[in-house]
Write a structure and sequence with these properties.
The protein is α/β, with parallel strands linked by helices. Helix content is 37%, strand content 30%.
Length: 242
């Protein structure tokens, strides 16, 4: 589904990615781990099309199509989703209105307010989100866990083919981690969504069960393995000879 070959990326003239190679097949879960500054979030932002990241060379194809030529919103419509470490607050725009807007922008079949509410309430129930929260302004006054629930709800509404979760576990307690896992497992079962979860810690992987774990160091993926690699990293650290 996603094929990254020899990807080199700069930001403000400084090299950040130095030849990344990664393949993600349909309905698989990959964990990308590494120290701060190793290039993990840069990779996520580059896949999504953040314009401040300059692709120097390399290829990124999604279902055989070169996504480097597409705008971020076009990549989203192709089925790529990126969660944020710090979701924005939008005063005056309700969660329900926002989610209906992005649903209708990403689906050929547009839903009326009544039909969309039916869909929204069904997806909210999966995550244990109360209906009154859907009437509040997007993320305004929400706790960290509530913001993450809203982002997972957005992911369930969009049903992407590839979901990139960038440090989705940052600052979350066990209950919130289980909410993330619930959303991910639902999408994998119903939609055969592939997952790329970027994290420093193995604790979230207890709930997501990755098929592959990759280690990034100095802008490259220097080691790959199964889920046991994550536990080895917690025991031994990230000192790896590339």
């Amino acid at each position: 589904m996603l094929n990254i070959k020899d990807l080199h990326v700069n930001i403000e003239g400084k090299k950040v990615l130095n030849g990344v190679n990664l393949e993600i097949s349909k309905n698989s879960t990959h964990a990308l781990m590494g120290q701060n500054g190793s290039g993990k979030s840069t990779l996520a932002q580059t896949i999504m099309g953040n314009p401040i990241y300059e692709v120097v060379s390399g290829k990124v194809t999604f279902n055989g199509e070169n996504v480097l030529e597409l705008k971020p919103e076009e990549r989203s419509k192709k089925g790529i989703f990126l969660s944020f470490q710090y979701p924005s607050e939008v005063s005056g725009v309700s969660v329900q209105s926002y989610l209906r807007l992005i649903y209708n922008n990403s689906h050929e079949e547009k839903l009326s307010p009544v039909k969309f509410r039916e869909l929204l309430f069904a997806k909210s129930e999966i995550l244990g989100i109360k209906k009154e929260m859907l009437e509040r302004s997007l993320n305004e006054g929400f706790s960290g866990g509530e913001k993450k629930k809203m982002e997972m709800l957005q992911m369930l509404i969009l049903e992407p083919k590839l979901a990139i979760l960038d440090e989705v576990d940052s600052g979350l307690d066990i209950d919130a981690l289980k909410v993330v896992a619930t959303a991910v497992n639902y999408l994998k079962e119903k939609n055969q969504t592939s997952i790329l979860v970027i994290t420093h810690y193995a604790r979230i992987l207890k709930y997501l069960e990755p098929d592959f774990v990759h280690v990034m160091q100095d802008g490259q993926i220097v080691q790959s393995g199964d889920k046991n690699l994550a536990h080895e990293l917690e025991d031994k650290g990230y000192k790896i000879d590339a």
